[in-house]
Amino acid sequence: MSGTSAGPAVLAVVGAGPRATGLLERIAANAPELWDGGRELRIHLIDPHPPGPGRIWRHEQSPLLRMNSMAEDVTMFTDASSVIDGPVRPGPSLAEWAAQFAGGPRHAPYAEPADPEVLAELRTLDGADFPTRRAQSAYLDWVFRRALSELPPSVTVVWHRTTATAVTGPADGPQQVSLADRATPLTADLVVLAQGHLGSAPAPEHRAHADFARRHGRFHLPPEFTADADLSGLRPGEHVAVRGFGLAFVDLMALLTEGRGGTFRTEADGTLTYLPSGREPVLHVGSRRGVPYHSKTHYRLQGPPPPLPRHFGPEAVDALLAGDRPLDLRRDVWPLMAKEIGFGHYHELFHAHPERTALPWPDFVSAYDAADWYSDAMTALVTAAVPDPADRLDLDALDRPLAGVTFATPDAFQEHVREHIARDVARREDPAFSADLGAFLALLSVYGQLPRLVAGGRLSARSVAEGLDGWWHGFFSFLASGPPGFRLRQLHALSRAGIVRFAGAGIRIGTDETTGTFTVGSASVPGHTVHTTALVEAYLPRHSLDRTEDPLLRHLHRAGTLTEEVITDATHTHRSGLLTVSPADAHVIDPRLGGPHPRRIALGAPTDSRSVAAFARPRTNAPAFRQNDAVARALLRTLSARHPAGTPEDGVPTAGTR
């Protein structure tokens, strides 16, 4: 940055959802140390959706939609586990915040949410419940307002309820942020891009299906955020091909069943029965694996937390980066990742359920540390120490439960998947299998180590494309990002009612010009084909700077002022569609400058940081909180250096939003 200014420092933040809220909280936390009270700082938040929740978590969505995390596993605040340079400022998790409302208004230190349904939910919310997204919206709104209240008087926050369309300006001068609803752009010293998850225009393969649907008067929905999708074109009783069996499907399922007036009844034996309204379509759902994501665990650890990381932490990543040949994720990295996940699993098994083990823990862990994951020694150790195969961790079997399995009839396959779902839910709700939660926690730890490995540039291009962004992302989501158990019990009931039909693994979607229908087949039931009059791609759109729906990123991309992550080597080129930022400080890489742009920073989902979610489980040293703290401190230092202490401009409010 060149020169200094006597006027107020100005920071523009594009996007006002959870990621921007977390950054604002860290600015408030670090301001007493790094911001002179005599300086004025004006922060512009630019987002058409409410600050705090943003678009994804806004209140204005169906009350049927839920989080896939328990209330006690959601926080926006640093805690004793956070390894940061700034001050730790603990705050309540969603569950702890909601508990303040349990006694009614006389006992609540926080303002009550305006929506009476949300308030009623919060008053009865248990830490092990899976809240509605509206409850999370209320929590995020409160976190945002708390962050505002903790800013010093010299810091003003202004919310612009509009869309940022462009950023221009030299690397050594002020930045101009154009807004959709005003002719004059905002002038800022620094700009932070924090738009969160973004939509994309349909990819070529989806455009072909869209063209087919238009020609034949059929319904087609490309990848989209389900809460935003218009599903009114799906007719009662219409047969619908659905590709994708993750959270987007679960939302779709809820909106097209309960959302259309159907109800679930709990029978005397505890099972659910679905009572249709008659307005539901029939969903034929399949995916690569052919089964839904694993249910979220609905219990707590029974033993002490596993000391993570152990086998795949900073030292292991350093050793991988120190080599002199390209790394392959499955060959070189996955064995260490798998061993870490296994450590979390067996740590919980041996400490919480020692009666189901045949060796003392010290003996087991000593041998475990010495053995490679894929080795005869490891196989022999686990076989000897863990007598019941149900207690052993078989990641390959978990990954592809239908591999090599075929069925003679569709009905036989339906029954098999229903049994799979019932077993999965029962296991994930039985504390006797809490070793699965130990594995889950280790899986999260592994996820947090991967960005450094990618940033180190040692993974081969094909390995990033097919291993990291392909197989690993799907495997992680399949194991760790599944729905709560009650959703899978609902799916079981919908299957028995004939509203959902399981299409199988390796789903194949085709078109039949003669009948004007989509065709659905899979490897699970060879020779069986279903014809449907609608197709829904039930998964989120992939990141794509070429096709992004965000006007600001589209402008920067077309102007050549940002860089798409492209990893290339002698055998492969991988274009991830992600915005490249500098690993140390998240500055946007500008190809015109040959490096980081000193005045533009980008955080969150559209960037190649990966693994940096906006909120986190408590006590996990969350990567997002670490990045938020580092960026907030850098922003305050940079702005302080540019703007010496002086008298604030007349007529500028000192705190709050408008």
Strand content: 15-25%
The CATH architecture category of the largest domain equals 3-Layer(bba) Sandwich
Helix content bin: 25-40%
| Strands in their spatial order, largest beta sheet | 3-2-1-7-21-20
Quaternary structure: single chain
Largest sheet, if any? Answer: 6 strands, mixed
By DSSP, the count of extended strands is 21
Number of domains: 3
Highest CATH level, the class of the largest domain = Alpha Beta
Rg (C-alpha, Å) = 26 Å
CATH-derived topology of the largest domain: FAD/NAD(P)-binding domain
- How many H/I helical runs? 17
Low-confidence stretches: 646-658
What is the CATH superfamily of the largest domain?
FAD/NAD(P)-binding domain
Please identify the structural class as seen in this structure: alpha/beta
Tertiary shape: globular
**Mean pLDDT score, rounded?**
93
The first-to-last residue Cα distance is: 30 Å
Organism: Streptomyces fumanus
Protein name: Adenylate cyclase
InterPro entries: FAD/NAD-bd_sf, HpyO/CreE_NAD-binding, L-asp_N-monooxygenase_NS-form
Question: Overview of this structure, please?
Answer:
This is Adenylate cyclase. It comes from Streptomyces fumanus. It holds the Pfam family NAD_binding_9. The protein is an alpha/beta fold. It folds into three domains: 289 residues, FAD/NAD(P)-binding domain; 133 residues, 3-Layer(bba) Sandwich (FAD/NAD(P)-binding domain), CATH 3.50.50; 127 residues, no CATH class. The chain is built from 17 helices and 21 strands. The strands form six sheets. A six-stranded mixed sheet has the order 3-2-1-7-21-20. It has a five-stranded parallel sheet with strand order 8-17-9-12-13. A three-stranded antiparallel sheet has the order 4-5-6. A hairpin with a 6-residue loop joins β4 and β5. α1 packs parallel to α4 and α13 packs antiparallel against α14. The longest helix has 24 residues. It is globular and about 75 Å long. The relative contact order is 0.17.
